[in-house]
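Risk register update: the risk of archive-format incompatibility is retired. Evidence:
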Amino acid sequence: MKQYDNVTIFDHPLVNHKIAILRDEKTSMKEFRELIEEITTLMTFECLKEGVPTTEKQVKTPLETCTQQVVKDNAIVIVPILRAGLGMVNGVHVLFPSARVGHIGMYRNEETLQPCEYYCKLPDGIEDKLVLLVDPMLATGGSACDAIDSLKQRGCKDIKFMAVIGAPEGVSKVAEAHPDVHIFVSTLDRCLNENGYILPGLGDAGDRLFGTK
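Archived output:
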């Protein structure tokens, strides 16, 4: 895959270990959900290493008063792409428990493989926030591109996208369509199959998160 300045692919042994368990078809729904959240937390730590809105705060220690950088209140909004993206929200909330949550509902037409938006509910003032758009699977890239388009149409200017598993085709599509959006993927898989599913992948993330088929 071509190298992009706005793409970060993780290569962390702890994340790779969790991905191995995540892929296993025998992994239970409970453990699958917990792993998605744990991986998301690890990714969020790296994703927000730069570009987070901060301010200075005076803190009194037992010895003296010092000036400390802190994240601004209400500076971050989490936007999961429904439905599988919901599985990543708690992973971000571990680090930012007060972050508000918007929702974008997308489904994939199984014949055309094109995404269709059916729902969008975002917090007021989101256009002035750092938006974390999350979806476990970045396959064709269609849903991610459309979700980013939707956010931009509503005035969002500072967007980061996080996916647990990505296919080269989808990563390239989003990177080229939205060079101003930084894409974070924990694991880059081999390719898409003829049905648009990631290989080796982990199956349908939404079904495995919520116990549906």
